[in-house]
Amino acid sequence: MRLNRILRTATFRLVALYVALFGGSVAALGAVVLWTTHVALLEQLEARISAESAALVTEYQEGGPDRLATAVHSRERTHPAGPLKYFVAGRNGTRLAGDLPSAPSKDGFQNGRYPENDGDFGHLRLLTTTLNDESRLTVAGDLEQIGDIEAIILGAFGSAFGAVLALGIAGGVALSTAFLKRIDTITRTAEAIIAGDLRLRVPLRGTDDDLDRLAATLNRMLDRIGALVESLRQVSNDIAHDLRTPLTRLRQRLEDAERHAGSVEEFRKATEAAISHADDLLATFSALLRIAQIEAGTRRAGFRRVDLSNLFGTVVEAFLPVAEDDGRSLISRLEPGIVVEGDRELLTQMIANLVENSIRHTPKGTQIAVNLHKVNGRVMAIVSDNGPGVPCNEREQIFKRFYRLERSRSTSGNGLGLSMVAAIAELHGIGIEVADNHPGLMIRLFFNRHS
Amino acid sequence: MKVLLIEDDAETAAYLVAALSEQGHVIDQTDNGRDGLFLAAGQTYDVLVVDRMLPGLDGLNLIKTARGAGVATPVLFLTALGGIDDRVEGLEAGADDYLVKPFAFAELNARLNALIRRPAIALVETSLRVADLEIDLLQRRATRGGQELDLQPREFKLLEYLMRHAGRVVTRTMLLEQVWDFHFDPKTNIVETHISRLRSKVDRAFETELIHTIRGSGYLLRAPE
């Protein structure tokens, strides 16, 4: 199993490839050396045979067959185990001199095999020359010497090849094991995280190599996932908490009606109240889903040119009587003809939520102002009031889901209005700034040049 | 009125069939898109109520296919909570109106009535009249008993919508969508406030009230009996 894993690692495969390449090179080199040596040695042997043969032919020409036989005898006597062997055959093929058991009948170089004293066969290179009186001189050189040298060369290259193979395989196993060990660390960490421990991270070696960088990237990814999970957990908690209370109240009311309502009219009232509670809950759900969808950002595909001045005008006009009836004033200064790219429906809701927020969370007599103008070509909208404002340390919090200021807890509402504003602004690339209006709250919207 | 309800949730369908029957409508109901399309194309209905999520053929494709096949019956499209793109998709597919689930029955009923009584050919009207109240659509002027009413442009639009639907209940949401183009639920009483202002101009100085509040449903403009 473990061996199987090593065999399948990329490192091992790479090492195997290198071993094959080096082994192949060594083998090829060996073959070339062997062949070249063989050719060179053979040429050398043939040159020597030719020289000897020429010398003996000279002896023959100078002194006839007898002198040739004497010369051969004397050479064989001087070097009994010498590299060269001889055969001199008479006209009828009878041996006149020489140790060779027989001689070829054709002239020129050829190979021959002759039994040796130890029962083996010796390989010889033979040169036969026909002399004037049709007697024949054969000079032979032992090919065994060449074979011996070739065997040494072959042995040397064989050892080198074996060494390359052994080193390669050992190196491959070692490298793979080291690599696998680090991969295993990553795998083990990932598995522990899958098992539930999200805080675990892959240990780094500080070498800044490929694997270290991979581990660092994985760790960063885990950090991001961790942050997302945390924010999701936060939202789920918020939802659970903020829906539990109204659900509990709804249940209590229904139970109370079941136990105490005495007349159809009382039942009707209880049911009406229950429906109204259920509607509030549905509105909260709807707002949460809407915010989630806006945050997903798919809506950007539907952006069109929107006359913002016109849109602000409609919203202000819609809320003006509401504000007046609630004892607040609503004034607006809207520069005409301001056009942006965006989603009409969502931009309407954004500005409506801001105006409503000011109407609902300020005391009677508050002045609310809506401004829209261009500053240096950049569209800016301001919704401000001279109400109690928002404490400095809570200004960033008001855009969080379900966040409500302490004094607003008694007013109805789901604490999602400004979260919706933030989500819509984010979608449109609108910057939001919460400031002190001295007194009161001022929310500034900076439209992106491209939006 | 003959209504075809294409809704796959058995409980919702049973509730709607019962409630619509009580209103005097004749209901055919099917729980899948294929049968729905077959019925819509084969028979004459006054209105179709189509759920978005349907087995077989989904609501959007059903409407597209029906419209492509020349079915001109008004369609009310039902979409799921929070689907902010569903409305546009539904209207683009050929639906005449949409409603987000879950909804109050009164809302569905009011919208169905508004669809059913829509004239087959949009007549180019230049004036509308209910009892002694008359509006001139070209000059954007309103009079009651010959007396000119001083209306803001939005109040005129609100009154025009009520008069076009005279004798039928219009809901708060319908008014928000049609008069202000607001497709969200404001937390303040925009509609109530504007109706109240309109009433003070249209009804206060006169003997008979024309604009009525229908508890739990919406508003109704109608001539006295």
TrEMBL record, chain A:
<dbReference type="InterPro" id="IPR003661">
    <property type="entry name" value="HisK_dim/P_dom"/>
</dbReference>
<keyword id="KW-0418">Kinase</keyword>
<dbReference type="InterPro" id="IPR005467">
    <property type="entry name" value="His_kinase_dom"/>
</dbReference>
<dbReference type="InterPro" id="IPR050428">
    <property type="entry name" value="TCS_sensor_his_kinase"/>
</dbReference>
<feature type="transmembrane region" description="Helical">
    <location>
        <begin position="151"/>
        <end position="180"/>
    </location>
</feature>
<keyword id="KW-1133">Transmembrane helix</keyword>
<keyword id="KW-0472">Membrane</keyword>
<keyword id="KW-0597">Phosphoprotein</keyword>
<feature type="domain" description="HAMP">
    <location>
        <begin position="177"/>
        <end position="230"/>
    </location>
</feature>
<dbReference type="InterPro" id="IPR003660">
    <property type="entry name" value="HAMP_dom"/>
</dbReference>
<dbReference type="InterPro" id="IPR036890">
    <property type="entry name" value="HATPase_C_sf"/>
</dbReference>
<feature type="transmembrane region" description="Helical">
    <location>
        <begin position="12"/>
        <end position="35"/>
    </location>
</feature>
<dbReference type="Pfam" id="PF02518">
    <property type="entry name" value="HATPase_c"/>
</dbReference>
<dbReference type="InterPro" id="IPR036097">
    <property type="entry name" value="HisK_dim/P_sf"/>
</dbReference>
<keyword id="KW-0902">Two-component regulatory system</keyword>
<dbReference type="Pfam" id="PF00512">
    <property type="entry name" value="HisKA"/>
</dbReference>
<dbReference type="InterPro" id="IPR004358">
    <property type="entry name" value="Sig_transdc_His_kin-like_C"/>
</dbReference>
<keyword id="KW-0808">Transferase</keyword>
<feature type="domain" description="Histidine kinase">
    <location>
        <begin position="238"/>
        <end position="451"/>
    </location>
</feature>
<protein>
    <recommendedName>
        <fullName>histidine kinase</fullName>
        <ecNumber>2.7.13.3</ecNumber>
    </recommendedName>
</protein>
<dbReference type="Pfam" id="PF00672">
    <property type="entry name" value="HAMP"/>
</dbReference>
<keyword id="KW-0812">Transmembrane</keyword>
TrEMBL record, chain B:
<dbReference type="InterPro" id="IPR001789">
    <property type="entry name" value="Sig_transdc_resp-reg_receiver"/>
</dbReference>
<dbReference type="InterPro" id="IPR039420">
    <property type="entry name" value="WalR-like"/>
</dbReference>
<dbReference type="InterPro" id="IPR036388">
    <property type="entry name" value="WH-like_DNA-bd_sf"/>
</dbReference>
<protein>
    <submittedName>
        <fullName>Response regulator transcription factor</fullName>
    </submittedName>
</protein>
<keyword id="KW-0238">DNA-binding</keyword>
<feature type="DNA-binding region" description="OmpR/PhoB-type">
    <location>
        <begin position="125"/>
        <end position="223"/>
    </location>
</feature>
<feature type="domain" description="Response regulatory">
    <location>
        <begin position="2"/>
        <end position="116"/>
    </location>
</feature>
<dbReference type="Pfam" id="PF00486">
    <property type="entry name" value="Trans_reg_C"/>
</dbReference>
<feature type="domain" description="OmpR/PhoB-type">
    <location>
        <begin position="125"/>
        <end position="223"/>
    </location>
</feature>
<keyword id="KW-0597">Phosphoprotein</keyword>
<dbReference type="InterPro" id="IPR001867">
    <property type="entry name" value="OmpR/PhoB-type_DNA-bd"/>
</dbReference>
<dbReference type="InterPro" id="IPR011006">
    <property type="entry name" value="CheY-like_superfamily"/>
</dbReference>
<dbReference type="Pfam" id="PF00072">
    <property type="entry name" value="Response_reg"/>
</dbReference>
<dbReference type="InterPro" id="IPR016032">
    <property type="entry name" value="Sig_transdc_resp-reg_C-effctor"/>
</dbReference>
<feature type="modified residue" description="4-aspartylphosphate">
    <location>
        <position position="51"/>
    </location>
</feature>
